[in-house]
Amino acid sequence: SAVISQKPSRDICQRGTSLTIQCQVDSQVTMMFWYRQQPGQSLTLIATANQGSEATYESGFVIDKFPISRPNLTFSTLTVSNMSPEDSSIYLCSVDTDPGTGELFFGEGSRLTVL
Amino acid sequence: GENVEQHPSTLSVQEGDSAVIKCTYSDSASNYFPWYKQELGKRPQLIIDIRSNVGEKKDQRIAVTLNKTAKHFSLHITETQPEDSAVYFCAASRRGSYIPTFGRGTSLIVHP
Q1: Which pLDDT score is estimated for A100?
Q2: Between A and B, how many CB-CB pairs are < 8 A?
Q3: Chain B CB contacts of A92 below 8 Å
Q4: Phi, psi of B38 (to 5 degrees)
Q5: Is pLDDT at A70 greater than 70 in this prediction?
Q6: Is residue A34 within 8 Å of residue A80, measured between CB atoms?
Q7: Which residues of chain B are within 8 Å of residue A42 when distances are taken between CB atoms?
Q8: Using an 8 Å Cβ cutoff, are B21 and B88 in contact?
Q9: Contact A77, A85 (CB under 8 A)
Q10: How crowded is residue A1: how many other Cβ atoms within 10 Å of its Cβ?
Q11: In this predicted structure, which of A42-56, A78-92, A98-112, B9-23 has the lowest mean pLDDT?
């Protein structure tokens, strides 16, 4: 298992600004993932944060909009850039502590509201 | 890529009844099928999973079945309780990837 701390837990942001979400894990993990969960919707993978290399983005998500850092094996950040109301969502950090099993552990999420 | 369909989107039952949520997947190479429960305002948590080498798995009041030929799998909850009320997500991932594709979720409401 893993204990994942995310912050901020929630924030209200102005259109055009950027916000960085932090994710801290209590153990070293190879793979960290960032998901978006729009209101009443499913979990959509934004990108996989790779330590020591650039993140791998899913179709529909680009680095300029969602830059990701992964400075070490326990920490990652996701920035939501130049926000618009459509970016209002819950952003979830997730890890796969036992590669190959498939089980994901999620952070509590960061609920962003863009006005 | 993988596509996971989940039904129903909302399920309302009386306490003590059974609840069944069904999912289909498209990628025949998928071999891992987890189910996550997300209570209101909480993080998703794995409740049960099944791999393609078994057809059914049980854990107390919950069970999952898998039909690889038809490419569908289901979650069964018996003797439902109000604390079972949550959104349930099915997912599928394939050999070598283990990054799951999630269904759209089922909001289960158990009425006392």
Answers
A1: 65
A2: 41
A3: 43-44
A4: -125, 105
A5: yes
A6: no
A7: 89, 102-105
A8: yes
A9: no
A10: 10
A11: A98-112
Residue the block writes with tokens 């796969």: A96
Structure tokens at A21: 């979400």
Q: How confident is the model at residue A41 (pLDDT cuts 50, 70, 90)?
A: confident
d(CA B2, CA B4): 7
Residue B86 structure tokens: 């949550």
Measure in Å the smallest separation between the Cα of B12 and chain A Cα atoms.
16
B41: nearest CA partner in chain A: A108
Cβ contact, residue pair A102, B49, below 8 Å: yes
Q: Which amino acid is residue B86, in one-letter code?
A: A
Tell me: the pLDDT tens digits for B24-80? 999 998 989 999 999 998 999 999 999 887 799 999 999 999 999 999 999 999 999
Name the residue type at position A74. Answer: T
| Whether residue A5 has pLDDT greater than 90 | yes
Gap between the Cα atoms of B83 and B62, Å rounded: 13
What does the block give as tokens for B3? 């596509």
- Tokens standing for residue A76: 């990652």
Nearest residue to B80 via CA among B105, B38, B110: B110
Structure tokens at A88: 């209002």
Distance CA B35, CA B33 (A): 7
CA distance A78 to A98: 23
CB contact set of B68 (below 8 Å; sequence gap of 6+): B52
